Amino acid sequence: MDVEGLAKEWDAIEEVRERLRAGKKLYDHPLDQKWAEPNRANCVANAAALKPVLTRLREDPKHTLPYLEPLSAEIMAFYKKAKAVVSDDKVIYKTAVETKKLAGFVKRRSNPTRQEFTKDVKFHELLLLYDPSLKDTGS
Known about the structure:
The chain is built from 7 helices and no strands. The protein is mainly alpha-helical. Helix 4 (47-59) crosses helix 6, helix 4 runs parallel beside helix 7 and helix 5 (68-81) packs across helix 6 (89-109). The longest helix is centred in the last third of the chain and has 21 residues, at 89-109. The protein is globular. The termini are far apart. 57% of the residues lie in helices and 0% in strands. It has one domain (6-137). It has helices spanning 6-12, 14-21, 40-45, 47-59, 68-81, 89-109, 121-130.
């Protein structure tokens, strides 16, 4: 998956840009988690940041999840664009891992053989963003 330009896409999304400018990280997560674990609640809570990633994943011919190194570079570029403070390089790497895991979670849940049914409309929207053929499996 090509991640070039993700920083610009994230910067164009006001909710995501303002989250960083407010001193928060790219992905929100509950206080009892050290990072945004790959689950429905975290995917829905971070839908704005995930949408550009899922769109690119859908458009990739092999639907390959992004490599961490180029993804980290885009995340660093976004943090710089948003003038966000990066405490250390681990934050960037951790955010890249979160991105890959959250996108992978949506990708796995969209597998037609799993017959994923959900009444969570917002999560279903993420599934449809990645795989529009799943229209009949939602609420």
